[in-house]
Amino acid sequence: MTDGSVTTSDAGPVLRITLDRPDRRNSLNHRMIDDLVASLTAAARDDSLRAVVITGAGADFCAGADWVSTNSPGVRPRTGDLLRRVPHGAHRIVELVATMHLPVVCAVRGWAVGLGCNLALAADFTIAETSALFWEPFVDRGFSPDSGSTWLLPRLAGVARAKRMLLLGEKVSGAEAADWGLVHSAVNDDELDAATEELVARLAAGATVAIGLAKQAIAYAQAATLTQAMNQELSNLELSCRTADFKEGLAAFTQLRDPDFTGR
User: In degrees to the nearest 10, what's the CA dihedral of 237, 239, 242, 244?
Assistant: First the structure.
């Protein structure tokens, strides 16, 4: 069994993050969680990036937090350990993916479990193999859901389906997840890489500032009134209209050509 790692590589404007612990279905130990938080935090501040892709090494995406290694025999943590630690680890991963202004794409094959499932649900676009399996096993293990599952699932799939996954522990295939609206799309197992690359290329060529502001506005509107949402849109519009990509978009429209956005 390996300790695992979170590896990153820059391919032009795209940051590729790989969860690399295939012998444990890419389950995340404390160090991997910290490394993933650090990688996402750095990406959120990097003006050279225009998209982020998260994948898992081997046959699976991510089997969630590694509760076996984090609860192995040893020194018992102080009372309140979860309350102190999790907001800066697992919860921070979901927050960063959901709130950073860069578009985030997850490519899911095999298992996406617990934190791994919620990471995929928090992404802006998740493409899954039809045979992939999404599973929230919290109550099956005797503890209550975390890492945003009770917020993400009802909004994406509705309360009834959220209860099926969270209270009954039902597993959902990639094909079902796409049908439920949990993920962007499901493709045949041999088409995942090509479909992911096509989507990432489209996002990386887009108006990066406008995409980020639109992402932020959508999230804000989930807990806002119509008037509040439109006021936020107006503020974001003021910012996006000052970008070079806005000028390029107008020029391309008047010249009847495709825009060549630079992300600025």
Answer: -90
SS3 content of the chain, % helix, strand, coil (to 5): 50, 15, 35
Tokens 């069994």 identify what position?
A: 1
Residue 183 and residue 172 in contact, taking contact as beta carbons nearer than 8 Å: no
- The per-residue pLDDT for 11 is 79
pLDDT tens, position by position, 72-110: 556 677 776 777 777 677 899 999 999 999 999 999 999
**CA pseudo-torsion sign 135, 123, 186, 15:** negative
Residue 10 has pLDDT above 90, yes or no: no
- Residues 91, 147 contacting (CB under 8 angstroms): yes
- The strand pair at 111-113 and 133-135 is best described as parallel
Cα angle vertex 198, ends 194, 203, to 5°?
Answer: 145
Measured at the alpha carbon of residue 142, what is the angle toward residues 58 and 81, in degrees to the nearest 5? 85
Is 0.90 topped by the overall pTM?
Answer: yes
Give residue 249's pLDDT.
96
